[in-house]
């Protein structure tokens, strides 16, 4: 039996009762060959495999899609109604907000279809088909049409995908696109046919005092009382096909929507989640985990913390700035705190110790098998990491400071083209580039950018970068500031933010009225931008070389680990493709003397209330409903109102907004967070501590009906009592 067949057997093999029930982001297309549903039934599932996913008929998979750029959403009515998280819809809510219409603060409730608001750029994507193309890719490698390294690259895989797409019956169908990706570190390949709808409208969003209740303080923690949901609707043309926004478009008549159960849940109940987890790294070595901690997480924590201090002060001082920077701050803060929690959990949960044990077991397995590649692979990975780690650190500091941190950066390539046109006295090209430069200016100075706020951020991050990176490794701009400004960052930044071509509309138009090479040479923003871009290109090239080496080594390592686990089945790292995870409703005890119940109620909202802290403000109407126990059919048997609950499901970023389903495939909640004690879960799953934090669907319906007064939305849902 050849190595490839052994690898594939290792990947798909199954033995009853051996696999942990909760760990695993399983591929829908492999459920049958891995006998996954048999394991799920042992945990309580009442459905068959084809009910969850079938290539030949409608299944639960068809009610779930990609919401926006990085979340999951589910269809909860026959008329295209989407449920997702508030934090997933936050960018759209912020985009549509203004000081006059502050939907972030006040919430938004469309009272009829005519009030639903179009969201420019927002999409919803369904997975139409999944095809195993492993043999196709391997044959191209064997024939030398692509290298093994190229099989990890989007360029090569996109070319193959395009070839296969043109031969399919879905070619040139409305809204269809394809994506081909490696799985199991390049040991398998799948191609996804996707259907994208681009007319998506905002329907309902609670005020942030509900949707973000607890804010940064409660993020990644339990107990939670956050009403983290929002609703949108898909519109299509008269034929039900994807179309850009048009007032004549109609709500999409969906082929599948999820029924909603308000029957309640108990500890131990079966729970599964289907969605699009973004990225995990479960097969790292000890050295790679240390690299993640020290070269990525630590500098990210330092730099984002410094930037967020500036933003928070400015946002607290101005409603305009608060709305402009709300989504940026939330996005930055989320993974700032995640990085803090991950590093802590890696230490607290002895992840390095677990990885070391795995490596020792693998070394013994490789020795017994006499497999030379397996015997040497970890040593080779560690050697690459040793060289790569300082480069990754430099890259993280550069990106966090000058690409994610400071926003004001002039697109030097546009001005390089202008310089060339000026040198060649090509007036036609100069005129064309003027228009392009004006468009670029508008893109930089967009409605969510404030030049003075960004100036303050720059004054913090420039000197911080200097402290974090030794002199010989910094971009050339730092030597220029030292020589011309005697190291006075504030003076340099003020001149750049005041006088650069792209600093203001007046400066831009003055330059464009008489563009010159001399003005380009003097421009501080262009000098700064080119400097950091050059440094980024150099670091990127170095990191790419190391990544190429590690790709092939990980292909061997993951193949070996899969063989070592036999007869247990294996699952691939998350890569924002549709997955299923299953487990149970379950409480937990993170440390001695501490016990966390599996659900929270509205009592906790009033216990946390603090009118002086924006994160813990309780809307007056909601407080009145809670005080009066005005919950009707959504209450627990004892009269309490549930808010959030815990399950043992294995999720990560990208799963936000994913449906939590009971044993019958009915919606009981939406996943929105993980718990603090297990934030090392992207690297190492902890069966005792790992919990998924979910919003109870009964609280969603309660808020819709009682706070939003949009009970008509509930009428279009299928409710199971």
TrEMBL record:
Pfam families: Peptidase_S46 (PF10459). Residues 1-21 form the signal peptide. GO terms for molecular function: dipeptidyl-peptidase activity; serine-type aminopeptidase activity. Gene3D superfamilies: Trypsin-like serine proteases. GO terms for biological process: peptide catabolic process; proteolysis. Keywords: Aminopeptidase, Hydrolase, Protease, Serine protease, Signal. Belongs to the peptidase S46 family. This is Dipeptidyl-peptidase. It comes from Bacteroides coprosuis DSM 18011.
């Amino acid at each position: 039996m050849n190595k490839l067949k052994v690898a594939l057997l290792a990947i798909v093999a199954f033995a009853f009762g051996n696999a942990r029930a909760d760990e695993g982001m399983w591929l829908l297309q492999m459920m049958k060959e891995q006998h996954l549903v048999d394991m799920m039934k042992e945990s309580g599932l009442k459905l068959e495999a084809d009910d969850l996913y079938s290539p030949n008929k409608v299944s639960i998979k068809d009610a779930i899609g990609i919401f926006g750029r990085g979340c999951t959403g589910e269809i909860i009515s026959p008329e295209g109604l989407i449920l997702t998280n508030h934090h997933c819809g936050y960018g759209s809510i912020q985009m549509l907000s203004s000081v006059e219409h502050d939907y972030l603060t006040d919430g938004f409730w469309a009272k009829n279809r005519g009030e639903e608001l179009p969201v420019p750029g927002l999409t919803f994507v369904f997975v139409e088909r999944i095809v195993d193309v492993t043999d196709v890719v391997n044959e191209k490698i064997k024939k030398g049409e692509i290298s093994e390294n190229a099989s990890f690259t989007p360029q090569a895989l996109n070319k193959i995908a395009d070839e296969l797409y043109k031969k399919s019956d879905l070619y040139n169908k409305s809204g269809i696109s394809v994506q081909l990706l490696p799985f199991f570190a390049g040991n398998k390949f799948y191609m996804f046919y996707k259907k994208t709808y681009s007319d998506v409208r905002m329907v309902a969003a609670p005020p942030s005092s509900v949707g973000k209740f607890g804010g940064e303080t409660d993020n990644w923690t339990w107990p939670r009382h956050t009403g983290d949901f929002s609703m949108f609707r898909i519109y299509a043309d008269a034929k039900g096909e994807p179309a850009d926004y048009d007032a004549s478009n109609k709500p999409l008549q969906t082929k599948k929507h999820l029924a909603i159960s308000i029957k309640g849940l108990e500890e131990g109940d079966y729970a599964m989640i289907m969605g699009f987890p973004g990225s995990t790294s479960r097969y790292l070595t000890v050295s790679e985990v240390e690299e993640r901690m020290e070269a990525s997480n630590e500098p990210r924590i330092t730099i984002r913390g410094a930037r967020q201090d500036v933003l928070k002060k400015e946002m607290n001082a101005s409603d305009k700035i608060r709305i402009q920077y709300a989504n940026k701050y939330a996005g930055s803060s989320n993974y700032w705190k995640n990085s803090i929690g991950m590093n802590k959990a890696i230490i607290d949960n002895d992840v390095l110790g677990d990885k070391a044990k795995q490596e020792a077991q693998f070394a013994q397995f490789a020795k017994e098998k006499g497999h030379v590649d397996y015997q040497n692979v970890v040593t080779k990975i560690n050697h690459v990491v040793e060289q790569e780690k300082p480069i990754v650190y430099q890259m993280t500091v550069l990106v966090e400071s000058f690409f994610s941190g400071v926003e004001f950066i002039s697109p030097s390539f546009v001005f390089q083209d202008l310089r060339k046109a000026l040198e060649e006295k090509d007036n036609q090209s100069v005129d064309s580039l003027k228009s392009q430069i004006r468009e670029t200016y508008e893109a930089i100075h967009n409605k969510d950018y404030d030049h003075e706020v960004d100036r303050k951020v720059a004054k913090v991050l420039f000197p911080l970068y200097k402290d974090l990176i030794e002199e010989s490794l910094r971009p050339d701009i730092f030597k220029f500031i030292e020589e011309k400004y005697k190291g006075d960052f504030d003076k340099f930044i003020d001149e750049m933010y005041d006088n650069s071509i792209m600093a203001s509309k007046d400066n831009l138009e003055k330059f464009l009225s008489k563009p010159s090479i001399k003005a380009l040479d003097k421009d501080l923003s262009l000098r700064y931008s080119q400097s950091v871009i050059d440094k980024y290109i150099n670091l990127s090239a170095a990191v790419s070389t190391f990544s190429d080496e590690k790709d092939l080594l990980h292909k061997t390592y993951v193949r070996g680990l899969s063989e070592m686990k036999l007869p247990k089945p294996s699952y691939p790292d998350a890569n924002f493709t549709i997955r299923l995870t299953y487990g149970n409703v379950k409480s937990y005890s993170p440390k001695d003397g501490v016990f966390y119940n599996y659900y929270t109620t509205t009592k906790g909202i009033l216990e946390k209330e603090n009118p002086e802290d924006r994160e813990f403000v309780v809307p007056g109407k909601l407080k009145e409903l809670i005080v009066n126990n005005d919950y009707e059919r959504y209450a627990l048997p004892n009269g309490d109102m549930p808010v959030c609950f815990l399950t043992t499901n294995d999720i990560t970023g990208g799963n936000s907004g994913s449906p939590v389903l009971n044993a019958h495939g009915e919606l009981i909640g939406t996943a929105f967070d993980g718990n603090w004690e297990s934030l090392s879960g992207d690297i190492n799953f902890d069966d005792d501590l790992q919990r998924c934090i979910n919003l109870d669907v009964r609280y969603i319906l309660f808020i819709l009906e009682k706070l939003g007064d949009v009970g008509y939305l509930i009428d279009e849902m299928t409710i199971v009592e």
